[in-house]
Specification:
The protein is α/β, with parallel strands linked by helices and 243 residues long. It has 2 domains: 4-124, Rossmann fold (3-Layer(aba) Sandwich), CATH 3.40.50; 135-238, Winged helix-like DNA-binding domain superfamily/Winged helix DNA-binding domain (Arc Repressor Mutant, subunit A, Orthogonal Bundle). It has 8 helices and 12 strands.
Amino acid sequence: MTDNILIVDDDQEILSLLADYLQRQGYKVSTLTTGVNLQSFLQQHKIDLIVLDIMLPEQDGFEICQRLRHYSTIPVIMLTARGEEMDRIVGLEMGADDYLGKPFNPRELVARIKGVLRRSRATAQLSTPLANSKFLQFSNWTFEPHRARLTAPHGVTTDLSAAEARLLQIFLQHPQVVLSRDRLLNKLKGRDALPYDRSIDMQISRLRQRMKDIDASFSLIKTLRNEGYILTCTVTALKDNPS
């Protein structure tokens, strides 16, 4: 099966070079120079992954990715000419799955694409007992994996970004188990943490805050100093909505 990659970049030379390279690697490639009409484009085309530049006219990649996450869980790799760590952190918080700074080797982009697609499909087709469960319940919270939808104990429901949903799902697959930063990053990104890499900490902080925004009493993901993180409650797989 051929994967369909969409590249969104206003630099025609980069678009042409990347499209040509990815096609030679066996991908089907579409291109856009702006993200303004992205939603309508996705309604008409099957896309497996989006390569999204941050520096775009009209709306930047951060805005586009944030808006995309309201209606789609298509994996996103963000590109930028700026190498600042804050750009990477913001991109991940907006729902990006990976981040690559320009200039880059096209072979690295292909490796990132393969890794993100592999993780995305592994999440969608879990090999654990949770795989066929439509609802996961933990401490009176309810998570719907295939819809990335979370319901708090008092009934308020919210849609998580793709990155938030995958991170929560990892914790739910390993309840009451200490997960190191390296292990979490490997499951999310397919690689170990680099020295001073705090992207996992930022993503967990973001997930915690999202859950506290729904229910201020949330405190189920604990930090264990020098060890990692742990989901402190048990998880129950359900076939039907508990409500």
